[in-house]
Amino acid sequence: MARNQVRLFASQLATNKIPTIKNESVKDFCFKDEKDWDLLRAAITKFSDETLAIPLVINGQKVYRTETKTQVNPAKHGQILADVSQATAEDIQAAIAAAKAAKKQWAATPWTDRAAVFLKAADLISTKYRYDMLAATMLGQGKNVYQAEIDSVAELIDFFKFNTKYAEELYASQPAETSPGVWNRAEYRPLEGFVYAVTPFNFTAIAANLVGAPALMGNTVVWKPSATAALSNYLLLTILEEAGLPAGVINFIPGDPVEVTDLVVNDSEFAALHFTGSTDVFKGLYSKISNNVAADKYRDFPRIVGETGGKNFHLIHPSASLEHSVLSSLRGAYEYQGQKCSALSRLYVPESLWPRFKEEFVGAMSQIQIGNTSSTDSLNFFMGPVIHEQSFDKLAAAIEQAKSDPELTIVQGGSYDKTNGFYVQPTLIQTSNPEHEFLKREFFGPVLTTYVYPDAKYEQIIDSIDKVNKYGLTGSVFARDRSAIRLAEEKLRYSAGNFYINDKCTGAVVGQQWFGGARASGTNDKAGSGNILTRFVSVRNVKENFYELTDFKYPSNYH
Ligand SMILES: NC(=O)c1ccc[n+]([C@@H]2O[C@H](COP(=O)([O-])OP(=O)(O)OC[C@H]3O[C@@H](n4cnc5c(N)ncnc54)[C@H](O)[C@@H]3O)[C@@H](O)[C@H]2O)c1
Ligand SMILES: N[C@@H](CCC=O)C(=O)O
User: Considering only CA atoms, which of 34, 135, 126, 81 is closest in space to residue 373?
Assistant: First the structure.
């Protein structure tokens, strides 16, 4: 008997249960414990003092290439954090081959052992690597410590832990009916072939989930990380390796996105895309895959899972709490510089509230401190830089457009500066046109557009919110009047996959608010829920019969 068969048999001696899973608690870094600050400062200094050479990782081997791309600190773009090796065509093919070769053993690895890798990685991030994770995300992706903590520590750990709980529930889900003498079973096979994960810059946790969810279910992965998140993403991979992830299960391939994608999705064993990023990039990938399906390139119909852009709204009703809706809107729009797919980018305020709303909102905006969020001297900055020069230029162009457009007025903000880092001031723009393109286009930055509606037109504005753009990711209604809440909840059914009542439209927590939207916002497979795991398995039904036939005729044949 082969050795791995012995291993498989040994794993069947008990049905193990995942430990009790709870959301990771978020440290508030409010200086009650100076030790936290010292540890964080040491980690920031460590990553700042040297330019890390980041390799590709193929079949567990580090591969360094002479062609590299630098990752800079967006808060101080003269600071080069990493030299990231770029994959050649041969590297990409080698990564695909490694994913295929590792598949059989990983798929046959007992579930307990696969789960343990992710539970241990979560534990390592909660303890030994918490400050490294924070520092890498703060420096590389321009987050302040609180935003880094809720992303690269809490949400990331939650994804890894909750996914094990959801997988356990999925595996336990079996056909409910059995006839006498029959045992029906469902087997949750990993997909045949390999998974391609293409991950965004803005959440280290999302990258972790895009590679982690398929891998947990027994798939192997080719991972193309975002160029502007390479540092935290590579750190994550090394932590997974320390937690016991076998070679070849996740292959890390930074490189030219189009070149990597074209080779990966042209492989006949490409089984699934797990993507998060912008809508247009996803459409391009979708169409390449569809064309390949039509051209008979694949053995299977690849699964396509993509979470994409948004143009998320707050609808303020005249009965809303003014202070709460002002502060929630400010956080929703400007936290992490508006670079959350869920960020508030269109705000609807009734005329009766607008003068006081505007005064309080602008007053709060003027207290926002913006600066180098990865500084070792200060944790004071509420906002930091936007991610890179293209984003900065796009936002600057939008602000300039607003200055000359007669239908737009800059209420507050409107300045920007890229001398040292990519800084865009939080900006509030008012439009007189409820159909304006600023209510349609995703800017992905701290630019919020507001439309002030007549109180009597509450229902009409709901219709306009629903129809004005193509997205359907997140949205909120703020009201004390229950009928106003009910009307918005009913009429905005398809306007947001995550709908909030008297809360901001960002900040979904794994296991609590399942995340994702439909329309142009993605396939809505709900990260943070068990549903996402079903996309990375292909169920086999097994019927075992205990009765043996003694005759081929039916009883009626003897009548
Ligand atoms: N719905 C969600 O859950 C969610 C979450 C986070 C971010 N987002 C969206 O992501 C976007 C911001 O992230 P981003 O700037 O990293 O997005 P992006 O689309 O620019 O990049 C995402 C990934 O796609 C790769 N990519 C870019 N062009 C490609 C191409 N032509 N072919 C193949 N791959 C390509 C990038 O290298 C990166 O790895 C926003 O639109 C935001 O709304 C959505
Ligand atoms: N969980 C986050 C996801 C943000 C995506 O970029 C939120 O809901 O704000």
Answer: 135
Strand ranges, E, within 227-330? 250-252, 270-276, 303-307, 312-316
- Is the residue at 196 inside a domain? yes
Q: Using the mean position of ligand 2's atoms as its centre, give its distance from the Cα of residue 529 in Å.
A: 14
In-domain check, residue 56: yes
Query: What is the CA(228)–ligand 2 centre distance, in A?
Result: 18
Which residues have CB under 6 Å of ligand 2?
A: 155, 202-203, 340-342, 506-508, 515
Rounded distance from Cα 157 to ligand 2 centre (Å): 15
Across the strands, what pairs with 477? 315, 501
Give the CATH number, domain containing residue 434.
Answer: 3.40.309.10
CB contact at 8 A, 236 and 262? no
Cβ–Cβ under 8 Å, residues 461 and 347: no
In the chain, the number of structural domains is 2
Give yes or no: residues 460 and 530 share one domain: no
Average of per-residue pLDDT across 38-49:
96
> Same domain, yes or no, for 456 and 421?
yes
Answer yes or no: do 293 and 392 share one domain.
no
| Residue 253: pLDDT over 80 | yes
459 given a catalytic annotation: no
468 lies in the same domain as 484: yes
Q: Whose CA is nearest to atom 5 of ligand 1?
A: 341
DSSP alpha helix (H) spans, 366-412: 389-404
**Whether 304 and 317 share a structural domain:** no
C-alpha to C-alpha distance for 301 and 197, rounded to whole angstroms: 17
For ligand 1, pick from 69, 147, 202 the residue to mutate: most ligand atoms within 8 Å of CB.
Answer: 202
Given this model, what pLDDT does residue 6 score? 44
**Residue type (1 letter), 140:** G
Looking at the fold, whether 408 and 472 belong to one and the same domain comes out as yes
428: which residues sit within 8 A by CB, 6+ positions away?
361, 362, 365, 410, 411, 412, 413, 448, 450
Tell me if 459 sits within 8 A of 438, measured CB to CB: no
Q: Let me know if residue 183 belongs to a domain.
A: no
Domain that holds residue 114: 36-173+188-308+522-540
Largest CA distance in the chain: 95
Is residue 401 located within the same domain as residue 527? no
Q: Provide the b/e sequence for 506-533 (b: ≥16 CB within 10 Å).
A: bbbbbbebbbbbebbbbbbbbbbbbebb
- pTM of model > 0.90: yes
Three-state DSSP state, 511: coil
Ligand 1 atom 44: residue of nearest CA = 308
What pLDDT, on the 0 to 100 scale, is given for residue 52?
98
- Which atom of ligand 1 lies nearest, measured to the CA of 282? 19
Nearest ligand (C-alpha, residue 223): 1
Q: Are residues 134 and 278 in the same domain?
A: yes
ipTM associated with this complex:
0.98
